[in-house]
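Fold it.
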Amino acid sequence: MRAMQKMLQQLKKSQALVDLYRDDLSGESLTGVITDYSEDLVYLSLFTEAGLANGIVVCFRSDITRIRWEGNERQAISMLVDAAGSKPTAPALAIDSLQSVLESVCSTFGYVNVLAERMNGAETFIGKIAELDAESLILDTFGTYSSRDRSKLWLRLSDITRVDADASYERSVAYIAGRSS
């Protein structure tokens, strides 16, 4: 068994808090527990530094540069998770392909947040799937707090690096979009 496969299996089983790094795409780590993984994708249930549940992320295994677990910082966050009684956001999601992730996340949460971090400026788009095929996604976007600019957006699936949902900001944007329509 490959080392990464074995490690992911152990971390999923133990539900140890991890910091997942994708150094080529972002300088920030993703902190949470490994909820599931497939040959190509990793599904993480996120927590804030204060120990509060902060949604989910699904990213490509090939983008992961390192995963750190144990240590003082993660132990401190774990103590805050326990103290707050936080539970990971962990609905069952289909993660066998990017298309199945997109459909599953949108169906579960009512929207999807797609990130295209290789684009100049690392773009993020929140909305509902209007159409999806093996090569592209058409999204009914919600816009931001201030713009609330609803629009249609076509993206190549090959540009999507990450899929998120259920973080506080995303829930707020989706709520405002639902109230404005």
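The beta strands are 18-21, 30-37, 41-47, 53-60, 66-69, 112-116, 123-132, 136-141, 151-156, 162-165.
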